[in-house]
Amino acid sequence: MVRRRDGRRPGADGRHPAGRRRPARRRRRRAGAAPGDPGELADVLGLSYRALSGDPVDLAVVGSGPAGLAAAVYGASEGLRTVLLDAVGTGGQAAASSRIENYLGFPSGLSGVELTQRAALQALKFGAQLSSPCEVVELDTGGTQLRLVLRDGTEVLARSVVLATGARYRGLPLDRWADFEGAGIYYAATELEARACSHAPLTVVGGANSAGQAALFLASRGAPVTLAVRGPDLTAGMSAYLVDRVLAHPRITVATGTQVTALGGGDSLESVTLTPGTAAPPASRRASGSSASSARSRPPTGWAGWPSTGTASC
Q1: 47 has pLDDT over 70
Q2: pLDDT for 48-69, tens place per residue?
Q3: Cβ neighbours of residue 244 closer than 8 Å, sequence gap 6 or more
Q4: Residue 45: helix, strand or coil by DSSP?
Q5: Nearest alpha-carbon partner for 158 in 81, 77, 89
Q6: Contact (Cβ atoms closer than 8 angstroms) between residue 218 and residue 197
Q7: Rounded to the nearest 5°, which phi and psi values hold at 251?
Q8: What's the CATH fold of domain 44-166?
Q9: How far is CA 42 from the centre of its chain?
Q10: Largest CB tally within 10 Å, which of 90, 139, 190, 249?
Q11: What is the C-alpha separation between 151 and 165, in angstroms, rounded?
């Protein structure tokens, strides 16, 4: 290594070897972004969308869950210039699943993170451009090309668009629900939530596959779990293999025909009141956490001019 007479490397004092000071790099703040905004960090890391040319892309995929990632893989593998956009991060809600066992090609099962990371690597291998967080707020179909508009005003022109936006969970209409979000109410059951709740009693709300997976995962970490299901049984919305495992687990109590009617606590959630659909009185259960894996959710497609009032099963 070449060193100067004083023993320091050329450029170690902020100057080029020729003595000129390195030019300061300044990055323009994104429109409407506050300091510490995730979009700014994505800009610095090169994860936000950047047009590689002035030409429209062949395929723009909105949403990076398993369906969106699959569309990106197949499009890019056929030689299409493919862009994948997601408002939060690659993987979607599937990335928050602790275990997925009914996905084609993985008979032993794997975590949602593993599944979506493998799919993302496969899309990148074929040349797809993955960008997040890049929230799409408008779809214009009136021109010769389709035009997507991002939250910061950036426009993405595409010859074709695939909407794989998944669904957005809806909270329950209860007092203080919003207060306890992130302080006892969670929309996922990962290792982080399991550590936060330790071995305290937990309530999982919902009767579809996400709820069953959450209940099994949390119970496997030693927590007693109550699975509150509004419907009369589990089979209506949950895969048979999950139903069998949930019913057989000694630390899971299934409460069908039951709704959450009240929440209690100070700065964090401390109790959940469950009310059966029969004449039985409500039961208040101590709980350090609640995983709201509700089976009723909204497809977030209002920005595309389509109604987002329908429901989807999670």
Answers
A1: no
A2: 677 777 789 999 999 999 999 9
A3: none
A4: helix
A5: 81
A6: yes
A7: -100, 10
A8: FAD/NAD(P)-binding domain (3.50.50)
A9: 16
A10: 90
A11: 16
